[in-house]
């Protein structure tokens, strides 16, 4: 899942070298955290959060295939 998020986010931003994706397990859920450069934050979130919602939708669809629970957080 981490690789999927990394590919999507790096394709969206202007500074892909500053993208940091981390993952950790909390209970039975995998939490993927995204950190990008401050200038790229708007590109990852999108207008009214549409891009962020789309990223979460794609990740959840991929997680269903693996029968896993995944949450995507965007950090500042």
Strand and helix layout:
Elements: H1 2-12, E1 20-26, E2 29-35, H2 41-45, H3 50-65, E3 69-75
Parallel strand pairs: 2-3
Antiparallel strand pairs: 1-2
Kindly describe this structure.
The protein has 76 residues and is α+β, with helices and mostly antiparallel strands. The protein has a single domain (2-75), classed as GMP Synthetase, Chain A, domain 3. Helices cover 42% and strands 28% of the residues. It is built from three helices and three strands; from the N terminus they run H-E-E-H-H-E. It has helices at residues 2-12, 41-45, 50-65, and strands at residues 20-26, 29-35, 69-75. The protein has a three-stranded mixed β-sheet with strand order 1-2-3. Strand 1 and strand 2 (29-35) form a beta hairpin. It starts with a helix and ends with a strand.
Basic shape: globular
Indicate the radius of gyration in whole angstroms. 12 Å
Which percent band covers the strand fraction?
Answer: 25-35%
Number of strands: 3
Number of domains: 1
What would you call the structural class? alpha+beta
- Please name the CATH architecture: 2-Layer Sandwich
Q: What is the CATH first-level class name?
A: Alpha Beta
Side by side, the strands of the main sheet go: 1-2-3
Count of discrete alpha- or pi-helical segments spanning 4 or more residues = 3
Going by CATH, the homologous superfamily would be K homology (KH) domain
How do the helices and strands follow one another from N- to C-terminus?
Answer: HEEHHE
Poorly predicted regions: none
**Main sheet makeup:** 3 strands, mixed
Task: Give the termini separation.
Answer: 21 Å
CATH third-level topology: GMP Synthetase, Chain A, domain 3
Helix content: 40-55%
């Amino acid at each position: 899942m981490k690789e999927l998020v990394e590919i999507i986010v790096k394709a969206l931003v202007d500074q892909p070298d500053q993208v940091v994706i981390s993952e950790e397990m909390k209970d039975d859920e995998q939490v993927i955290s995204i950190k990008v450069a401050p200038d790229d934050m708007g590109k990852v979130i999108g207008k009214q959060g549409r891009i962020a919602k789309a990223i979460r939708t794609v990740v959840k669809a991929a997680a269903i295939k693996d029968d896993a629970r995944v949450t995507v957080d965007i950090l500042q």
